[in-house]
């Protein structure tokens, strides 16, 4: 049972961090409007695909996980 409790506490902490990150990311004006983000606007239709933002987040997360895995 203690393993399950530790897992649930870890998942809860991860959810809290994800929520805090979402609050902060909304206040960064350039995130989501990077070069490489695809936007198609037509009357009554808007398509947005954040390709540049996705690549940047992938690189940052890969670097963080690599640094954490080195221990």
Structure in words:
The chain is α+β, with helices and mostly antiparallel strands and 71 residues long. The protein has two domains: 29 residues; 41 residues. 61% of the residues lie in helices and 14% in strands. It contains two helices and two strands. It has a two-stranded antiparallel ribbon. Strand 1 and strand 2 form a beta hairpin. The longest helix is centred in the first third of the chain and has 24 residues. It is elongated. The model has no long low-confidence stretch (mean pLDDT 87).
Mean pLDDT: 87
Q: Could you give the distance between the termini? A: 27 Å
Helical segment count: 2
Largest beta-sheet characterization:
2 strands, antiparallel
**Which blocks of ≥5 consecutive residues have pLDDT under 50?**
none
Strand portion? 5-15%
Count up the domains.
Answer: 2
Shape, please? elongated
Helix proportion of residues, in percent? 55-70%
């Amino acid at each position: 049972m203690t393993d399950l409790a530790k897992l649930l506490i870890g998942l809860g902490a991860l959810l809290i961090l994800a929520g805090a990150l979402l609050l902060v990311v909304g206040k960064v004006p350039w995130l989501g409007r990077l070069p490489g983000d695809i936007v198609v606007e037509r009357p009554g239709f808007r398509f947005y695909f954040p390709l540049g933002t996705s690549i940047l987040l992938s690189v940052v997360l890969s670097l963080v996980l690599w640094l954490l895995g080195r221990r």
